[in-house]
Amino acid sequence: MPKIMELCLLIIFVLSFLDGQSVEARRQQEVYQKCQPVTIPMCENLPYNMTTFPNFLKHQSQEEAGAEIAQFLPLVNVECSEDLRFFLCMMYAPPCIQNFVIPPCLNLCEQARYGCEVLMNRFGFSWPEQLSCDKFKEAGPGVLCIDRNRTDDNVSKRPAPVLTTIAPVPVDDVTYCFESSTIVYEDILSEFCKAHFVMKIRLESISSTVQETTYQANDRKREIYKRDGLKKRDLKAMLFHMRNTAAPECCNVMKPGEEFLVMGYKDNKRLVISSVFAWTRSRDFRQTIRKFVDLDC
């Protein structure tokens, strides 16, 4: 493999090529036989310079792929995700590696979507179905996919993207809730940096037992602003728990059918809420939410 690819791409192979290629790999080798220089402007100056067609989206040429990928240029320019351009080029102009095309890993897709999906939703657009992260597999034994190499910061003119350091689980055992009239906006930004997850939810129901109270949110009515260390499966159930002690105002703030900004952390397999802010349409609140995209914690 060329040295530049070794620096920039983490390639996980299902089976050793010495032991024989999988049926899928042999099929791909038959279909993707010819490498060609990358000419799509958005995909130039990446860690690879050769591609092959048809791509994962069934485009037959770079001209066809280039015309479609150009619609994402505004998102790439605002840098809502450092992985967006890399992921898009994996899909529209995949690197030609020994006449194979290897799909992106699930993590690469999720990191590209993270941040950009929120921005798209804000303007009435949704993440394209053809780029759904459900189509990709998580890196691991028996999986052939490509992810970012996040250990070398010298692979390009700008530093390679790195995963945000996951904050430690806090020792404070109290969940705090804030009504719209008691929100201090600087506190939102401070709590954002401490949390493993930050999202807007619509509360569906509250269930209590002798041991605990759980909060069920609508999985279709959510916006995710941060999810350090959380995988897609962690958010599937949209079931949240309070800390051991909840501040008295939480009983008044958390009501089914209403929207909230919730922050918290993952404790084993549980999503534990550390703070809740009543969702408001005030100008200051909306400006604070917009700061999440560029917030340097």
CATH-defined architecture of the largest domain: Orthogonal Bundle
pLDDT averaged over residues: 77
The total domain count is 2
Number of helices: 10
Number of strands: 12
Helix content: 25-40%
End-to-end separation: 37 Å
* DSSP strand content: 15-25%
Strand order of the largest sheet: 6-7-9-12-11
At the fold tier of CATH, the topology name of the largest domain is Frizzled cysteine-rich domain
What is the radius of gyration?
22 Å
Query: Which oligomeric form is depicted?
Result: single chain
Q: What is the CATH class name of the largest domain?
A: Mainly Alpha
- Sheet bearing the most strands, described? 5 strands, mixed, barrel
Write the topology of this structure.
Blueprint: H1 3-8, E1 9-12, H2 23-31, E2 36-37, E3 50-51, H3 62-69, H4 73-78, H5 84-92, H6 106-113, H7 116-122, E4 145-148, E5 174-178, H8 185-194, E6 197-208, E7 213-217, E8 223-227, E9 239-242, E10 245-246, H9 250-253, E11 259-267, E12 270-278, H10 283-290
Parallel strand pairs: 5-10, 5-12, 9-12
Antiparallel strand pairs: 1-4, 2-3, 6-7, 6-8, 6-11, 7-9, 11-12
Helix pairs in contact: 5-6
